[in-house]
């Protein structure tokens, strides 16, 4: 498995946090890491430093130039909307086949590990009639799902797991990322989810806890390595 697809139960849950952290960790282990984030919305050319592609390039130790961002993220929308809605406003619909072939060629070119950050949640529409889930299915690569610990996340997470199970998609890991101010801890949330997850590994991340999170990234990197061999 040369590639990992990082998706989530929704937007702002922690995909970039997990993708960038995993990249940094793998690079520290001497691995050669590449990242793509094929579709970005809410992208402002005048404020690229805070954009997802810039943060991901930083994790790779690369300069976040506009050219590097364009190579990593060919589909960029200004509106902070789902890609199908943003495309309608900006007259730039995504061609699903081109998106799949962009990802496939990045997978084929990857020297070692390729991380792909999705957009929004697992079933956000990409085009009229396709979602991120369809992209994962078309690419046949193992996804990591990032989920939160907010009230309601259990249902969102189990819904995501169920839909993947029904599509026959084998989940690599569930990354449970603490939502700020949530009533339940990542460990309590994980304990509840474990009853439904079978053998899917659950890895917990805390808010602003570099040392504990380094251990969690170590476990995630180990899983990636195992899935590759
Ligand atoms: N464990 C954490 N500790 C500290 N900050 C975090 C953690 N997880 C996420 N964040 C912060 O929370 C915000 C949202 O996380 P992130 O950008 O990774 O979400 P996302 O799923 O990639 O969002 P999007 O759907 O916009 O791509 C970011 O500012 C990020 O730095
Ligand atoms: Mg992101």
Question: How are the SSEs ordered, and which strands pair?
Answer:
Elements: E1 3-8, H1 15-28, E2 33-36, E3 39-40, H2 52-59, H3 66-72, E4 75-76, H4 83-90, H5 96-109, E5 113-117, E6 125-127, E7 130-131, H6 132-139, E8 142-147, H7 153-167, E9 173-177, H8 186-197, E10 202-205, H9 210-228
Parallel strand pairs: 1-5, 1-8, 2-5, 3-4, 8-9, 9-10
Antiparallel strand pairs: 6-7
Helix pairs in contact: 1-2, 1-9, 7-8
The structure holds adenosine-5'-triphosphate and magnesium ion.
Give a verbal description of the structure.
This protein is of the alpha/beta class and 229 residues long. It has one domain (3-36, 96-228): P-loop containing nucleotide triphosphate hydrolases (Rossmann fold, 3-Layer(aba) Sandwich). The chain is 46% helix and 17% strand. It contains nine helices and ten strands. The chain has helices at 15-28, 52-59, 66-72, 83-90, 96-109, 132-139, 153-167, 186-197, 210-228, and strands spanning 3-8, 33-36, 39-40, 75-76, 113-117, 125-127, 130-131, 142-147, 173-177, 202-205. The strands form three sheets. A six-stranded parallel sheet has the order 2-5-1-8-9-10, sandwiched between helices. It has a two-stranded parallel sheet with strand order 3-4. Strands 6-7 form a two-stranded antiparallel sheet. α1 runs parallel beside α2, α1 (15-28) packs across α9 (210-228) and α7 (153-167) packs parallel to α8. The longest helix is centred in the last third of the chain and has 19 residues, at 210-228. It is globular and about 45 Å long. The termini are close together. The model has no long low-confidence stretch (mean pLDDT 95). It binds adenosine-5'-triphosphate and magnesium ion. Magnesium ion binds next to α1.
């Amino acid at each position: 498995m040369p590639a990992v697809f990082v998706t989530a139960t929704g937007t702002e849950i922690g995909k970039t946090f997990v993708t960038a952290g995993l990249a940094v960790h793998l690079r520290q282990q001497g691995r050669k890491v590449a990242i793509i984030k094929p579709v970005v919305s809410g992208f402002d050319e005048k404020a690229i430093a805070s954009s997802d592609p810039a943060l991901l390039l930083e994790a790779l130790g690369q300069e976040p130039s506009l050219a590097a961002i364009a190579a990593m993220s060919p589909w960029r929308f200004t509106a902070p909307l789902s890609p199908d809605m943003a495309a309608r406003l900006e007259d730039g619909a995504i061609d699903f086949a081109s998106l799949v072939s962009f990802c496939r060629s990045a997978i084929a070119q990857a020297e070692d590990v390729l991380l792909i950050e999705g957009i929004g949640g697992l079933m956000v529409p990409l085009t009229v009639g396709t979602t991120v889930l369809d992209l994962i299915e078309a690419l046949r690569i193992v996804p990591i799902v990032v989920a939160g610990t907010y009230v309601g996340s259990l249902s969102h997470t189990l819904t995501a797991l169920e839909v993947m199970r029904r599509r026959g998609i084998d989940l690599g890991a569930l990354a449970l990322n603490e939502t700020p101010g949530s009533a339940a801890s990542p460990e309590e949330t994980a304990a509840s989810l474990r009853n439904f997850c079978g053998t899917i590994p659950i890895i917990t991340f805390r808010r602003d806890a570099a040392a504990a999170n380094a251990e969690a990234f170590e476990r995630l990197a180990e899983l990636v390595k195992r899935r590759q061999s």
